[in-house]
Amino acid sequence: MNTSIFIRKLLITVLIVFIVILLLKRKDMTWRQSLLKTFYPIIMLPGKIFGGASKGLLNKQKMQPITSFYQLQILLNNGITLSMDSLKGKKILLVNTASDCGYTGQYAELEALYQQYSHQGLVVIGFPANDFKQQEQRDDAAIAEFCKVNYGVSFLLAKKSSVIKGAGKNPVFQWLSTSSLNGWNNQEPTWNFCKYIVNEKGVLEAFFPQGVSPMDESVLKILSTHP
């Protein structure tokens, strides 16, 4: 009798779990992407509790770049070349991104940040990369569609490239992570969704790792400060 009740409860539990999983499945997302999006708030909980100020690297000495950031160009997702020289006078947030990462939910926060600060001159640029555990295997068209449909992304997306050390490293990330170019910082992305902030004068102001939300107070403080 007890065995029969146990089996019945077990079957009911399995059925409930199966139904919950079915409900979690989102249109235009894989099962993995759906689950990651659902559990994103839990993934980010430690960062929200402890804050990001202690995790970031800041240009406290106000070191100036050795090589001008404005000499760089970005090949955008749509094939258009964007010169950084055209962004003089604007704050720029540069982030390496991926579609199949536990931090992919930051796309939504990056879009919210862009909507909140774009009128103040903020430019957000995502750099899709397949550098970490092959979590961005889509092509550029599929990446753009995924971001638009699932996260309403309207900020700029660069053409897919590599952001870590190697022969094919994106020149922008080469500048961001080489002190002999940017003046002080050698920190490469440690995972997807690392953030670099360049100010209105082309000076690298800060680096924040993936565990720090784009909406963290430490990030917002820098975005709200102007040289």
- Alpha-beta classification: alpha/beta
Rg over alpha carbons:
20 Å
Strand order of the largest sheet: 1-8-7-4-5-6
What is the assigned CATH homologous superfamily of the largest domain?
Glutaredoxin
CATH architecture of the largest domain: 3-Layer(aba) Sandwich
Overall spatial form: elongated
N-to-C order of helices and strands: HHHEEEEHEHEHHEEH
What is the number of beta strands? Answer: 8
Number of domains: 2
The name CATH uses for the topology of the largest domain is Glutaredoxin
Number of helices: 8
Which regions have little confidence, pLDDT < 50, spanning 5+ residues? Answer: none
Calculate the mean pLDDT score and round it: 91
Whole-Å distance between the termini? 75 Å
Helix content: 25-40%
Strand content: 5-15%
Largest sheet: 6 strands, mixed
CATH class of the largest domain: Alpha Beta
Would you mind describing this structure in some detail?
The protein is of the alpha/beta class and 227 residues long. The protein has two domains: 2-43; 45-224, Glutaredoxin (3-Layer(aba) Sandwich), CATH 3.40.30.10. Helices cover 37% and strands 14% of the residues. The protein contains eight helices and eight strands, in the order αααββββαβαβααββα. The protein has helices at 2-24, 31-43, 45-50, 106-117, 140-151, 171-176, 179-182, 217-224, and strands at residues 57-58, 73-75, 81-83, 92-97, 123-128, 156-157, 195-198, 204-208. A six-stranded mixed β-sheet has the order 1-8-7-4-5-6. A two-stranded antiparallel sheet has the order 2-3. 35% of the residues are buried.
